[in-house]
Amino acid sequence: MNPSLIDAPALSRRGLLKFSLGASAFLATVGLGASLSGCSSSLPAHGFAALRDSDLPFLRAIIAVMLDGAVAVEGIPAATDATLRNLDTELAYLSPAMLKLTRQLFDVLTLGVTCGPLAGIWGAWENASADDIRQFLNRWENSSLDLLRQGHNALLQMVMMAWYSRAEAWAHCGYPGPPKI
């Protein structure tokens, strides 16, 4: 007699901790392996100070989805490029250790081996639909794994800081701008 799913025991705390530890080790290994194998160049893309060629398609895709509703549809491409430029400037001022961690996050999300299983994006980011990207962001935001929730928070904070540091973003949230001195 085969046990049904109803009869299977629920995941215990110890099981969840083991799974989380294994997932963390896997992500760290993949990130380190990508960095050491040369899968991701540490050289910035042409015209950028910190962002690499491999980061740009991924970031363009998620920025466009994150800005949906804050920017008119026809303004999304220009807003995405402006946000990307601000993000690059912000990343250029990070400490080397923080930049390395940020690049590891980007590597995990741009490597084919890890992008599909972790993000649910099985092809190139530029071919992913807005719904696929929203599902990825929602999955990471509500994940039972702390590491994925932290990755979501990091992405969200980086993009929102880069967007809302621009004067054209202020009107949407009712901010009149800094006081005139």
C-alpha Rg, in Å?
19 Å
The arrangement of helices and strands along the chain is: HHHHHHHH
Q: Indicate the mean pLDDT.
A: 85
Helicity level, as a percent range? Answer: 55-70%
Silhouette: globular
Number of helices: 8
Number of strands: 0
Q: By helix and strand content, what is the structural category?
A: mainly alpha
What amount of the residues lies in strands? under 5%
Measure the end-to-end span.
79 Å
How is the main sheet built?
Answer: none
Low-confidence stretches: none
Write up what this structure looks like.
By secondary structure, this protein is an all-alpha fold. The protein has a domain at 63-168. It is 64% helix and 0% strand. It has 8 helices and no strands. The chain has helices spanning 13-37, 55-66, 76-92, 96-110, 112-119, 130-141, 146-164, 167-173. Helix 3 (76-92) packs across helix 7 (146-164). The mean pLDDT is 85.
Q: What distinguishing features does this structure have?
A:
181 residues; mainly alpha
